[in-house]
Amino acid sequence: MFTSWKIGLTGLSIIGLTVLLSRCASTGTMSVVRPVETDVFLLNPGRGFTSTSEVYNENLTNRRHTPCGVSQQRFFWDVLEPEEGKIRFDLIDSTIARATRNGQQVNFRVMCQDVDMKIPAWALKAGIKSPFYDNPVFIEKQINLIKALGQRYDGHPGVCFVDIGTIGQWGEWHIDPEAPDPKKIVFPTDENARVIIDAYLGSFTKTPLAALIAFKQKYGFGYAVSKGTGWRADCWGDMDSLGWNHMKGVYPPALQAANASESWRNGPVALETCWTMEDWYKRGWDIDYILAKALEWHATEVNNGNQAIPEAWYPRVQAFEKKLGYRFVLEELKYTASVGKGTPVACEMTWQNRGVAPIYNPYELAVQLVSKTDRRIKYRVRTDADVKKWLPGRSDYQTTLPLPDAIAPGNYELQIGLLAPSTGKPAIQLAMTGKTQEGWYKVGDIAVTE
């Protein structure tokens, strides 16, 4: 027998740090549990390293690389919408399905340009032409596509975030000034750039968005983050010492100019390597500086292009990976150890987020009672705790858990879990011992009396 119910709770968030203890004590009718924290690698969706294209965790194992919580996917417009309105959703759906099987979520981007434009033939016939990005037909048809994608994927449990793409080479919001014919493809006006950004903002109100970082105002970065997006940088690690590089010459002043240093609170920070970590190693770049900056910027995911991590750096990169995004541990749980049938259970939780960023997708904090005499008998309470507000550091949560009148007296095992709303099953691994085969975490025992 399985019974599930949901209650309304009141949560309190407090920032701070405490020392984790590994003991359980009873104080009167209250049990105090301090789970044992672990430092092991945890594969969790929407955070950590990113695989790309046709590489997923299942075929990443032939190289020295940590498993990935994100699958990065890119789609050219002419491939994604070969006929007007007939969007190849199957291309995105198949990547989501494969990523889900591999414990990953998908981040995707629409691209309208490689070096040359990648415009569908039907759209060219409809009137799209140079300078392209300011062409009214281009803007109209792109907005239609963005809206259709939002209708299908906004809030989709398999998608962790969406890039604000569309503009520039590979959707990166820049155009090569040394192109053979720089007058052929022209960057859009500020007004039209905002029209495209607004289309994404209006179409994705549940799924987070990430804007490409840029120093110049015309690239729309400052506007996007002012509206609540996260950001991404596609040349993370560039330490070229010939007078200019991204790590010191572009990203810090761009964040300052856009007032974006706190935007990680709203949306994810995603970083893609310039070249790969192996190239960094060969060039003698400062890996400690590069990794520290990613954590300072509160990065949720990083992309090393599916390439191996240098052996000499692997321990440092492993330690770095554990700090990316979120990493939750229940530090302390206080609850009523013995209650009468139908009496609510007083409950106080202290959580720690050991990562540098919150979780950006919705998950449900739940408590489950499992009968010790018949483990098929389970009672579940899904709370309304907003785990997206668990910022780095400490978060306290207090509530009462009502027990149903039908609950049988007896001894029960108390379990907690972070559930995916779409499945009702535990979906997030915690940095603590006690994990069950079903993904719950045993945290104590409780007696129910007549």
From TrEMBL:
SUPFAM superfamilies assigned to the protein according to its UniProt record, in alphabetical order: (Trans)glycosidases
Domain named DUF4832: residues: 295-424
A UniProt-annotated Pfam family: DUF4832
Secretion signal span: none
Protein name: DUF4832 domain-containing protein
Taxonomic source organism: Larkinella knui
Lineage: Bacteria, Pseudomonadati, Bacteroidota, Cytophagia, Cytophagales
